Amino acid sequence: AQRVTQPEKLLSVFKGAPVELKCNYSYSGSPELFWYVQYSRQRLQLLLRHISRESIKGFTADLNKGETSFHLKKPFAQEEDSAMYYCALSSFNNAGNMLTFGGGTRLMVKP
Amino acid sequence: EPEVTQTPSHQVTQMGQEVILRCVPISNHLYFYWYRQILGQKVEFLVSFYNNEISEKSEIFDDQFSVERPDGSNFTLKIRSTKLEDSAMYFCASSLSAGINTGELFFGEGSRLTVL
């Protein structure tokens, strides 16, 4: 069975500090991993996906199959990064894109 | 920018009552989903819907739940006889396809269901 674990419920950093939000997964196949973000009073939205290897809002995430991790990183946190972050694993098949979410990490960036 | 919309934003109901949660997916999307999040817990997949039928469902989605797309725009989740443990935030989502590049899920803002 697939599983996503985010070990930290809350991460608090000062503005300008580096950020790393941890995500570990277990999946028997080839994983497709995503980070979703939910800003205060807004909807869940896709932040980035591992396959595109992109940097969004300064965030990057590298898939490490050996460590089964997909940690989200940003070198210099901004106050507007404060939000709930969810790591998710996808089972793509003809039925759709079913996501298994981690429990989420609340990032608080203090001024 | 097109968005997934959900109504109501909050519903309070008595145990045993039927509840219908409504969603309007993005108009050109073909796949529709319901997820739920019980307070303090993970967001969990309930069901996916494609081509006017359920394409996949989780073990949470038992006989008390049903989905339909009655008129080509709305996508509804019905809970036949609510239980206390159905209290949760229910998220509707849609995607253009099932593929890795165009299968991004777009979520609604959620409908909070409180069962008393």
Structure description:
The complex is a heterodimer of chains A (111) and B (116). Chain A is mainly beta and 111 residues long. In chain A, strands 2, 5, 6, 9, 10 and 11 form a six-stranded mixed sheet that branches. Chain A has one domain (3-110): Immunoglobulins (Immunoglobulin-like, Sandwich). Chain A is globular and about 45 Å long. Chain A has no helices and eleven strands. Chain A has strands at 3-5, 10-14, 19-21, 24-26, 32-38, 45-49, 60-61, 72-74, 83-93, 96-101, 105-110. Chain B is an all-beta fold and 116 residues long. Chain B has a single domain (5-97, 106-115), classed as Immunoglobulins (Immunoglobulin-like), CATH 2.60.40. In chain B, the strands form two sheets. In chain B, strands 2, 4, 5, 6, 9, 10 and 11 form a seven-stranded mixed sheet that branches. A four-stranded antiparallel sheet of chain B has the order 1-3-8-7, with no helix packed on it. In chain B, a hairpin with a 5-residue loop joins strand 4 and strand 5 (43-50). The termini of chain B are far apart. The model of chain B has no long low-confidence stretch (mean pLDDT 93). The chains are: A mainly beta (111), B mainly beta (116).
What's the total number of strands of chain A?
Answer: 11
Superfamily (CATH H level) name of chain A: Immunoglobulins
Low-pLDDT stretches of chain B are none
CATH topology group of chain A: Immunoglobulin-like
Level of helix content of chain B? Answer: under 10%
CATH topology of chain B: Immunoglobulin-like
Distance from N terminus to C terminus of chain B (CA atoms, Å) equals 37 Å
Which range does the strand content of chain B fall in? Answer: over 45%
Most extensive interface between two protein chains, with residue counts: A-B, 23 and 28 residues
**Oligomeric state, counting identical vs distinct chains:** heterodimer
Question: Can you count the helices of chain B?
Answer: 0
Write the topology of this structure.
The complex is a heterodimer of chains A (111) and B (116).
Chain A: E1 3-5, E2 10-14, E3 19-21, E4 24-26, E5 32-38, E6 45-49, E7 60-61, E8 72-74, E9 83-93, E10 96-101, E11 105-110
Parallel strand pairs in A: 2-11
Antiparallel strand pairs in A: 1-4, 3-8, 5-6, 5-9, 7-8, 9-10, 9-11
Chain B: E1 5-7, E2 10-13, E3 19-24, E4 31-37, E5 43-50, E6 53-57, E7 65-68, E8 75-79, E9 88-95, E10 106-107, E11 111-115
Parallel strand pairs in B: 2-11
Antiparallel strand pairs in B: 1-3, 3-8, 4-5, 4-9, 5-6, 7-8, 9-10, 9-11
